[in-house]
Known about the structure:
The complex is a heterotrimer of chains A (about 375), B (about 325) and C (about 525).
Chain A: H1 2-13, H2 31-64, H3 80-108, E1 116-123, E2 126-132, E3 139-143, H4 149-152, E4 170-173, E5 178-184, E6 189-193, E7 198-202, E8 208-212, E9 218-224, E10 236-242, H5 244-264, H6 271-290, H7 306-309, H8 312-321, H9 337-349, H10 361-368
Parallel strand pairs in A: 1-5, 4-10
Antiparallel strand pairs in A: 1-2, 2-3, 5-8, 6-7, 6-9, 9-10
Chain B: H1 22-46, H2 54-82, H3 88-127, H4 154-158, H5 191-214, H6 218-249, H7 257-291, H8 300-325
Helix pairs in contact in B: 1-2, 3-7, 3-8, 5-6, 5-8, 6-7, 7-8
Chain C: H1 12-17, H2 21-49, H3 60-95, H4 103-111, H5 113-122, H6 150-177, H7 190-221, H8 235-269, H9 276-290, H10 305-317, H11 319-333, H12 342-365, H13 367-373, H14 377-407, E1 409-410, H15 413-440, H16 454-484, E2 486-487
Antiparallel strand pairs in C: 1-2
The structure holds heme-A (2 copies), dinuclear copper ion and copper (II) ion.
One heme-A (HEA) sits at the interface of chains C and A.
Amino acid sequence: MGKRVSGLTLAFLSPLSVAQNQVNMSPGVTEIGADIFELHMLIMWICVVIGIAVFAVMFYSMYAHRKSKGHQAAQFHESTKVEVAWTVVPFLILIAMAVPATSTLLEVYDNDEAELDILITGYQWKWKYEYLDESGEPVAFFSNLATPQEEIYNTAHKGDNYLLEVDEPLVLPTNTKVRFLITANDVIHSWWVPEIAVKRDAIPGFINEAWTRVPEEGIYRGQCTELCGAYHGFMPVEVHAVSRPEFDAWMAAKRGAAAAESQLAMQTLAVDDLMDKGKAVYDSACLACHGAQGEGGIGNAIAGSAVVLGDLSSHMAVVAKGVSGTAMQAFGGQLSDVDMAAVLTYQRNAFGNNTGDVVQPGDVTGIKNG
Amino acid sequence: MSSSSSASAGHEKYYVPESSSLAVRATIGLILSVFGAALVLNDMTYGSGDESSASVWVLTVGLVFFIFTLASWFGTAIRENLAGMNSSQLHQSYVLGMFWFIFSEVMFFAAFFGALLYVRQFVGPWLAGEGEGGRMNGLLWPGFEFAWPPVTTPQEVVGGVDAQVIANNGAFVSQETSMAPADAHAWYAWLPMWNTLILLSSSATVHVAHTAILADNRKKFNVWLGITVGLALIFLGLQAAEYYEAYVLYGLTLNSGIYGSTFFMLTGFHGFHVAMGMTMLLIQLVRSVRRQHFTATDHFGFEASSWYWHFVDVVWVFLFLFVYIL
Amino acid sequence: MGDHHHGPAQGISRWLFTTNHKDIGTMYLWFSFAMFLLGGFFAMVIRAELFQPGMQLVEPGFFNQMTTLHGLVMVFGAIMPSFVGLANWLIPMMIGAPDMALPRMNNWSFWILPPAFLMLASTLFMEGGAPAFGWTFYAPLSTTYAAPSVTFFIFAIHILGVSSIMGSINIIATVMNMRAPGMTYMKMPLFVWTWLITAFLLVAVMPVLAGAVTMMLMDIHFGTSFFSAAGGGDPVLFQHIFWFFGHPEVYIIILPAFGVVSQIIPAFSRKPLFGYASMVYATASIAFLSFIVWAHHMYTVGMPIAGELFFMYATMLIAVPTGVKVFNWISTMWRGALSFETPMLFCIGFLILFTLGGFTGLMLSIAPADFQYHDTYFVVAHFHYVMVAGAVFSMTAAVYYWLPKWCGRMYNEAMGKTHFWISFIGFNITFFPQHFVGLAGMPRRIPDYALQFADFNMMSSIGAFIYGASQLLFLYNVVATIVAGKPVSDEKVWDGAEGLEWTVPTPAPYHTFEEPPLVPKPAGTI
Ligand code: HEA
Ligand code: HEA
Ligand code: CUA
Ligand SMILES: [Cu+2]
C-alpha cells in the first residue's frame, strides 16, 4: 500500500531504517515501467481514498454509537437506495481503472518489430542467453550467481550486490527494441527485472515473448521469480544496458572469444590452465550441488567418488548426459569441449582426488565422436 | 415408516444413530490402502526392483478391510431401513447425499475433459508454432505439426529424447493407429460404437427395471436388472478387448504422448466407474433375488444405483463424442 | 426409536465412535488448532531463517519444504477444518435440527483427516525430504523433479479431498433437509447461508483438485505426458486445473468467515444485520465469479491477450459484491449500541485488515501491474491479510463468541482483549512491511535475500514471533475457560445475540432440538 503509509511508517521506523529502504515499486527506466508505476499509484490512491472514507464512517460510529455512552440502537435493516448506490458506484470506479489497465496491457503485449531477439533459457539454477542473429559466430553463454558461498554462509562480509550479481551479465544496447524469447530447460522459472518491468515465466517446451527498450545506460538487477527448486533464491538476473557502439564492440569481442575458444579446442593446454579454468567452471556450474570442497550436497561427493576416480569415459558420460531422474543434468549441451575438459581435469585432481589425469579438449571431442 | 411421535405435524423424528465404529474402521481401511498404494508405486518407480512385498501386503490388507467395512456399513443402513427407523426425511437426506456425490463425480470428469479440450484447442497448435501463444515455438519443435488424433509427438519429430531441447523427462512414442473411426478396419470392427449401443441400451433396461419395481413387479424387475448387469459386463469385456488392441496391436499406450494420456485416463476412469456402477446394480439384484428387498415405495438402494448408472452413461456419451469421434 | 436422552459415552470410544455433531465439531476444532500450531511452527522456522540475510538455520531445500508444508497445513489443516468444526457445532443448532443429516459419515469425514496429515507430515522424514514445490505444486517441479515423497503427498491430498467432499455433502443435506418448520431459506442465519454456498464450492472444486493430483500421479509413475511438452502436454495445463480449484478455494476459506462476522457484528451492535438479502446475493455472486477468475494467478505465463483481459475484468468485478458486504457490516454498526468485547474486537480487526487485503487483491487483479507484483512478497502480504486477519481473526472471534455456549463457562475478558491487541499489532508488524519489500522487488519462496530488504524482514520476523506468542495466550485462555472459567447459565450469553442457538440451555446439552423448535423471527432479522 505504498506511499500513504510509507511516510507514517518511516517516521515510526526511523531508528531502524537506512536510506536505502525502498517502500514502493520502482518506476523503472522504461516507458512501460513508468506506465505500470502510474497505474499502480492510481489504483493504490483510489483504494486509499475509499479506505479512508469507509473507515472514517466506521470509526465515527464506533465512537459516537457506543453503548457505554448510552446510545440506543436503531432498528433499521435495509435501504434499497443506498444498496443500489454502493453497488453501482464501485462498479463505475472499476471501469475507470480498467481503461488505463487495458491500454497498458496492450502495450506490454506489443511484441512486434523488434530489432534484436534474445533467447533466454532458464536452467536449475542459472540463465542462458543466446543472441539470435544470423550473421557471424553465434553468441551464447550462461549467467551464474557470482556471490561467493562464504558470503552466503556468513563467513565473509556481504558485498553491496549480495545475491544480485552474476559472472556474465546480459548486455543490451540502449534505445533498441529488444525482444526476449523466454523458455526453460527443466522446470518453470520466471525472468524478472523490476527496473525494466519485464517478468515472464520460462516454461519448458514453450517460448514466451516479452520486450523492452531501455533508454538509459546502467546496470539493472532482478531475480528468478518462480519457485524452481532448492536454489531458486540464488538465480539472479543482471542486465547491462550500454550504448550501441559499446554493444557492438562487446558483441565483436564475444564473437572473437567464441572463435578463439573453438581454436583452443584443437590445442593441448597446460595443466595449470586446465585446472584454473576447471575451477572456474566447477564453481559456477557444479558447486551448488557438489559443494565447495567436493563434499557433496544435493549431488554425490566428488571427493573420493568412484566415478571420478574411475574410467574417464564413464566420468564424462555422467557429466555430459546427466543421470536421468536425478538433479544431475546433462551438461553436454552446456559446456564447450574446453570447459568440459577443464572441469573433468579439475574434478579428477582437486579435493584430494589426485589422479594426475589430464583431460584435453581433444580427448573430449574424441569421446564424443565415439 | 417410523414409529416416531413428533409433536409438530409433518415432522417425524429423525433417526440419529447412537454411536458407531464404522467410520473408524473405514478410516483404517482407507488409510492402509492409500499408504500401501503409495509404497507400491514408489517401489515401482524409484525402487531397485528387489523390494520385499510388504508394500503389496499393506495395500491388499487395507483394501480388503476397506471393502468389508463398506459392506457392513451398507448392511447396517439396509437393516435400519428394514427395521423402519428411517423417516422420509432421512430418505431425503440420502437422496441429497447421492445427488451431490454424483455432482462431485461430474466435476472429477470435468477436470479430465477440460484437460482434453485445452490440449486440443490451445496446446497442440501452440506447440506447432501457431497462434498468439506459440508463434516462436518452432525454435523448440521444428517440424512439428498438430492434428487430432495426433500422429506424432513433438519429441519424435525432433528426433527423440536426446535430441529435444528441453531436459529429458521421459520418452513419448505416439501410437501407430488411433481409436478414431477413420482408423478402424471396418465399421463393425469399431468397438466404441458397439460399446455406445450397449451402454445406451443398458440405461434403457435399467429404466424398465425401475418402472417394474414401481409397479411392484419383482419378477420383471429382476429380469431387467439382470439384463442391465449383463450388458455392463459385455461393455467391460469389450473395453478390455479394446485396451488389448490398443496396447498390443496399435502401440497405443500410456506413453503415447497426450493422445494416449487423455485416451486412457478418460476411458479408464470411465471403465472404473462402470465397474463400480455394475457392482452396485449387482448387489441390488442379489438383494432383490435372495432377500426380496425393495417395494414400490421403498427401493432407494436400487434407485441410487440407477442414477449412478445413468450418470456413467451420460459420461460415456461425452466420451464417445470428444474422445472417439471429434 | 424410543426416546433417548443419553449423554455421551465414556472414555476414548466416545470420540472414536461418536455420531454427535457437537462431539465431531469439537474434534474438528481441536484438530485444526493443533494444525494451526504446527503450521505456525513452520512459519516460525521461515521467519527465523529470514530474520537476517545469509543462510543461518536451515538449508535452502529444507526452507522450501517449510514453505510448502506451512501453506498446505494452514490451508487444509488449520483453516478449512476449523470452519467445518464450527459448521458442525452451529448449523444444526442454528436451523433447529437434531443433528447433521448423515451422522456416521460425519464422523468418517473427520477421522480420515488426522491420519492424512500424519502421512503428509511423515514425508519430512523420508529420503529426499518432504514436498518442496510450494503449496501450489506446479508441474514439472512437482512431477519429474520431485522427491519420492510426492506420492504420499498426492494420496494425502486425495484423502483431504474425500473428507471435504463428504463434509460438504453433509452440510448441504443438513441445510436443505433438516431445517425446523418455518425456517425458510431467507430466514437462515447468514452463517448457514455462507456455509451452504461454501459447501457447494467445495463439492464443485475438490474433485478437480483430485483430478490434478491424479494426473501428476500418472505423469510420475505411468509415463503419461499431461504436463510435458515433449509428449504434447503443457506444464501450464497444471496451473489452469490447479487454479480452477485454487481460486474458489480462497473463497471457501473466506465465506464462512464472512458468515461469522455477520453473526457477531449485529450481536454487539444490538441491531439487526443490515441488508440481509443483499448479503445472500453478494455471497452467491462471489461464489459464481470465483469460477471464472482463476487465471489471475497466471498473468505471467504468457496467456493470449484476450484471456488476460477476460480474467482481469472478471477478477475486478469481485470487488463489487465484496464491497456490498463491507458496507453492510458498517451500516449494521451505524447507530447501533456498540460494545467491544473480544469477539467484536476481532471482528473489527477483521473488517479493517480484510478490507486492506481486499484492496491489495484488487491491485493484484490489474494484469499489467501484477507483472511487477507477481510472486513477490506483495502477494504474500495480500494473502496473509485476507487469510490470517480475515479467516483466522474471524475464527478467533467465533471461538470467543460461542465458547460460553459450548462449555458453559466465560473466558477471561481481560486476557481476551490482551490477545486481540497483541495479535493486531503483531500481525501488522509482521505483514505490513511485506508490502514494502514486495514492491521493492523481493521474490517469495526464497531463503535468503539481497541486503536492501534486511530491515523490513527483521521487523517482519519480530512481528511474527509476537503474533505467534499471542496464540499461546489464546490457547491458555481457552483451556483455562474450559477447566475453570466462571460458569454462565443464561441461555443468551450475550444480550444482543439472536438465533436459535441462543434459545437452548447453556452449556448446550448433548442433544438439542430432538423436537423441532418454533421459528419465530421474521425474515432478515437473525
Ligand atoms: C481468503 C483468501 C483470499 C481472498 C478473500 C482473496 C481476495 C482477492 N484476491 Fe487474492 N489471493 C489469495 C487469497 C485470497 N484472495 C491467496 C492465498 C493468493 C496467493 C496464492 C499463491 O500464489 O500462493 C492470492 C493471490 C491473488 C492474486 C494473484 C497474485 C499473483 O500471484 O500475482 C490476485 C490477482 O488478481 C488476487 C486477487 C484477489 C481479489 C481481487 C480479491 C477480492 O476478493 C478482494 C475484494 C475485496 C475488496 C476490493 C475490498 C472491499 C471492497 C470495498 C470496500 C468496495 C469498494 C472498493 C473498490 C471499488 C476498490 N489474489
Ligand atoms: C490461512 C493460512 C495461513 C496462515 C494462518 C498463515 C500464517 C502465517 N504465515 Fe503464512 N502462508 C500461507 C498461509 C497461511 N499463513 C500460504 C498459503 C503461503 C504460501 C506458501 C507457498 O508459497 O507455497 C504462506 C507463506 C508464508 C510466507 C512466505 C514464505 C515464502 O514465500 O518463502 C511467510 C513468511 O513470512 C509466512 C508467514 C506466516 C506467519 C508468520 C504466520 C503466522 O500468522 C503464524 C502464527 C501462528 C503461530 C506462530 C503458531 C502458534 C505458536 C506456536 C506454535 C508456539 C511457538 C512460537 C513462538 C514461541 C513464537 N507465510
Ligand atoms: Cu529459477 Cu526460480
Ligand atoms: Cu485467486
